Amino acid sequence: MEPLEESARPPSERTRVRRLPRRAAYDRATIHAILDEALICHLAFAVDGQPYAIPTAFARIDDHVYVHGAAASRMLRAAAGAPICFTVTLVDGLVLARSAFHHSMNYRSVVALGPAEEVVDEAERLAAMRALVERVAPGRWDQIRPPNRQELKATTILRLALSECSAKTRTGPPIDDLEDLALPCWAGVVPLALSRGAPVRDLTR
Amino acid sequence: MEPLEESARPPSERTRVRRLPRRAAYDRATIHAILDEALICHLAFAVDGQPYAIPTAFARIDDHVYVHGAAASRMLRAAAGAPICFTVTLVDGLVLARSAFHHSMNYRSVVALGPAEEVVDEAERLAAMRALVERVAPGRWDQIRPPNRQELKATTILRLALSECSAKTRTGPPIDDLEDLALPCWAGVVPLALSRGAPVRDLTR
After folding, report:
1. Which ipTM did the prediction report?
2. CATH number of the structural domain spanning residue B90
3. Considering CB atoms only, which of B94, B143, B190 is closest to A185?
4. Does residue A198 belong to any structural domain of this protein?
5. pLDDT by 10s per residue, chain B, length 205
6. pTM listed for this prediction
7. Which residue from A205, B6, B64, B192 puts its CA 20 to 30 A from A32's CA?
8. Is A71 on the interface with B (CB under 8 A)?
9. Which of B87, B194, B201 lies at the smallest CB-CB distance from A186?
10. Domain count of chain B?
11. CA separation for the pair B48, B64 (Å, rounded)
12. Domain assignment of residue B159, given as a range
């Protein structure tokens, strides 16, 4: 459990959820839980006034998220030191209502804003790389070959503090208008989940 | 099959894949197939110099993608007429290599750039709404109550032409360095897929 007094996090004007504010959450436990379940984020950054949203892996350590990539990556060069948006989305279900208008999805998302900082401390860089591996396969870091000097040099790591962020979620059945409840069509939720299949061993020798 | 002569789509400098260009594709069939499998996109747009990436549902009709939302939505107001990035990502697997460096993911993604246009033609607006419902539950549009005048008025629809876009995919096993192949750790791919669970009927009356 995280200390209660630290978990309240008032939204900024930029991360306050305006559409359907009842779906918003700003507490650390909710935000961390969504981040820790997700496998990828989308990073938004701008190059010459053109916004981009690029998917990439990430890891969370305490109240920072980390992304990594090739040192030459356009995304990392554009994002370092610049205002970015870090977004994570889990799709939980299709919400099939009795009217077209009330169709929706169940989801959990987190949006975090801020300047991305390049991580230069070697211990923190290694911790981020370890977290990136461990989050998809716990215990794996100690079984694999760690990065060598050349690989470390070729890797850039950025971090973003989770200081200006919000979560938005929708759960539950469709909310139909009263006058539509008698319509004969099926209504409800089709649950969705990212599932892992049977691992396929690489037989290369 | 789409006509071959129309499927070649040379990338712009902004959508040409630079990192690992062997993973790139620019043909219409590949791009459409990824879009048609995905349930959500992330839209990147900027407000006061701050980029945002916001998840939302979408539909494709021919060579346009459509998103919709409340007319008052900040996202739609910021994106209408402005340069946006429309990104779709399907996560297909965890790629567990013998070295930390070669860990990866299998994925299929599409990035499309351009100005988002507000759709004002009522027939096209309805076609987009229909496509948004039909893509998650084919045949459903004819069973449900269509949007009434008030709902139509409250809904904004944006479209983006798929003219400046690219796909990027990774498939297959980890690509380890030769000298790591003898390491004793497990290596391979853990397949991932978004799966639908048993539908949960809404019993509200």
Report:
1. 0.92
2. 2.30.110.10
3. B143
4. no
5. 333 333 445 678 888 887 788 888 889 999 999 999 999 999 999 998 999 999 999 999 999 999 999 988 888 888 888 999 999 999 999 999 999 999 999 999 999 999 999 999 999 999 999 999 999 999 999 999 999 999 999 999 999 999 999 999 999 999 999 999 999 999 999 999 999 999 999 998 7
6. 0.92
7. B192
8. no
9. B201
10. 1
11. 27
12. 4-170
In a domain, A156, yes or no: yes
Q: In angstroms, rounded to a whole number, what is the distance separating the alpha carbons of residues A9 and B105?
A: 33
Give domain status of residue B139, yes or no. yes
Q: How many residues would you count in chain A?
A: 205
Q: Report d(CA A98, CA B205) in Å as an integer.
A: 11
What residues of chain A, 92 to 111, have a C-beta less than 8 Å from chain B? 94, 96-101, 103, 105, 107, 109, 111
Q: How far is CA B76 from CA A19, A60, B11, in A?
A: 12, 30, 27
> Per DSSP, what are the bridge partners of residue B44?
B53, B85
Residues of B in contact with A202 (CB under 8 A): 173-174, 176, 187-189
Separation of alpha carbons A55 and B107, rounded Å = 10
Whole-angstrom Cα distance, residue A60 to residue B44? 22
Q: Does A178 touch chain B (CB under 8 A)?
A: no
Long-range contacts of B147-155 (CB under 8 A, 24+ apart): B147/A99, B147/A100, B147/A101, B148/A101, B151/A99, B151/A100, B151/A101, B152/B122, B152/B125, B153/B71, B154/B70, B154/B71, B155/A101, B155/B68, B155/B69, B155/B70, B155/B71, B155/B125, B155/B129
B140 has a chain A CB within 8 A of its CB:
yes
How far is Cα B125 from Cα B130, in angstroms, rounded to an integer? Answer: 9
Half-sphere exposure of B23 (CA within 13 A, CB side): 16
Residue B28 in any domain: the answer is yes
Q: Can you give the length of chain B in residues?
A: 205
| Closest-approach residue (CA) in chain B for A153 | B101
Pairing verdict, β A83-96 and A104-115: antiparallel
CA triple B53-A79-A130, angle to 5 deg: 95
